[in-house]
Amino acid sequence: MYKKLEELIDMNQHHLNVLGVSHPTIEEICRCSEKYGLHSKLTGAGGGGCVFTLIKPGTDGQIVDKLKTDLIQLGFQCWETSVGGHGIFHHQHSHDIPDFNKLHDINV
Fold first, then answer.
1. Residue 22 has what DSSP assignment?
2. Residue 46 pLDDT more than 60?
3. Residue 70: what pLDDT?
4. What is the mean pLDDT of the chain?
5. Any idea of the CA torsion for 85, 27, 46, 40, to the nearest 10 degrees?
6. Whole-prediction pTM value?
7. Strand, helix or coil for residue 40
8. How far is the C-alpha of 20 from the C-alpha of 37, rounded, in Å?
9. Tell me, what's the pLDDT at 38?
10. What pLDDT shows up at residue 29?
11. CA dist 101 → 35, 46, 98, 104, 105 (Å)
12. What whole-number distance in Å separates Cα of residue 61 and Cα of residue 47?
């Protein structure tokens, strides 16, 4: 799953750059993360100046620290966050709809 997500992140960022909504500093961040085998893209449609980098579970913390150090030295700010939630559900019948109050958070 992560391999496909990394591929889609790279493709999307490339398309955004070709469309002209990226920026040289965003491309610099993407190249920097690529150096460590990580994948980054701008967060929206462009112009906002924010980029996210996908950190797969099990990624060596030293790689993340090195990337953060490089980015800070280049004058960028770094924030760490996580994504979690119930994910996506496909329901064929109304009785298949889960009771979200009984579900536990799942980190992806």
1. S
2. no
3. 97
4. 83
5. -10
6. 0.72
7. strand
8. 25
9. 97
10. 95
11. 42, 36, 9, 8, 10
12. 30
Burial of 42 (C-beta count, 10 Å sphere; 0-12/13-18/19+): buried
CA geometry: angle 90, 93, 94, nearest 5 deg: 100
Residue 44: burial class (beta carbons within 10 Å; 0-12, 13-18, 19+): exposed
Spatial separation of the C-alpha atoms in residues 85 and 88, rounded to whole Å = 9
Q: Please say if the pLDDT value at position 80 is more than 90.
A: no
21: closest CA among 66, 51, 57, 56? 51
Residue type (1 letter), 56: K
Is residue 84 within 8 Å of 107, Cβ to Cβ?
yes
The bridge status of strand 84-85 relative to strand 106-107 is antiparallel
